[in-house]
Write a structure and sequence with these properties.
The protein is α+β, with helices and mostly antiparallel strands. The protein has two domains: 53 residues; 105 residues, Immunoglobulins (Immunoglobulin-like), CATH 2.60.40.10. The strands form two sheets. A five-stranded mixed beta sheet has the order 2-8-7-4-5, with no helix packed on it. α1 runs antiparallel to α2.
């Protein structure tokens, strides 16, 4: 602003001086006996004076310092914090109906009439009795049976029906007629309870015997 005011004042003074010179020149053009004045030196001096004034004003006027343009500040973008939600656990679907209790057939050995390792003569007949207890959850019907499973059958039928019901916790004696093998040796027979559909239980019973030929007495000689 100071630079503009100084420049205007110089220009105004220059214009006033030029007006005066113009008036003086006009008045000098009238016919007179007064000699003509050369104004060129005056114009040159005025012009030099004005130029010097303008140059000084320009030197004294500080150059405008450009203000730094405001830097655009990037607004921070809000980052959404994503929290992983736990996957829902698989729903367990329960049956609306009440499941039936699973029946289970089980037999427990209680006792037997012929002890293991009993010695028999070849071909000797005997009656084997096993006492069994119903330790399962199902009732043994008359159609349940004791079946031959492995070993030597000792001449007995392969299936023996129990002939009556046995409730859970009850016991029954199963009698089987058997016969010792004809040849001496050690023998074993395995039997297992089964239902009327011949589905075997898991617990077999067995008998082990020894067949020994009888000792023939040696006749003594008479003296």
């Amino acid at each position: 602003m100071a630079y503009k005011k100084g420049t205007l004042s110089v220009i105004g003074a220059l214009l006033s001086l030029l007006s005066l010179l113009w008036l003086a020149a006009f008045s000098l053009t009238a016919p007179t006996s007064t000699p003509t004045i050369d104004l060129n030196p005056v114009r040159t001096e005025v012009a030099a004076t004005v130029l010097a004034q303008v140059t000084r004003d320009l030197a004294l006027t500080p150059s405008a310092t450009p203000l730094p343009s405001p830097t655009a500040t990037t607004q921070p973008t809000s980052t959404a914090s994503l929290t992983a939600s736990p996957a829902p656990s698989e729903a367990v679907t329960l049956s609306s109906g009440t499941p039936k209790a699973e029946t289970e057939n089980r037999a427990q050995w209680v006792s037997q009439s012929i002890a293991d390792d009993t010695i028999f003569e070849p071909g000797k007949t005997f009656t084997m009795t096993w006492r069994l207890k119903n330790t399962g959850t199902s009732t043994w019907t008359a159609g349940y049976m004791l079946r031959y499973f492995s070993g030597n059958a000792f001449g007995a039928p392969k299936e023996i029906s129990i002939g009556r019901e046995v409730l859970p916790g009850g016991e029954i004696d199963i009698n089987i007629d058997m016969k010792a093998p004809a040849n001496p040796g050690n023998y074993r027979t395995d039997w297992v309870m089964s239902n009327e559909n011949r589905a075997n239980f898991k617990e077999p019973v067995f008998l082990k015997i020894k067949v020994v030929a009888p000792v023939t007495p040696t006749p003594t000689s008479k003296l």
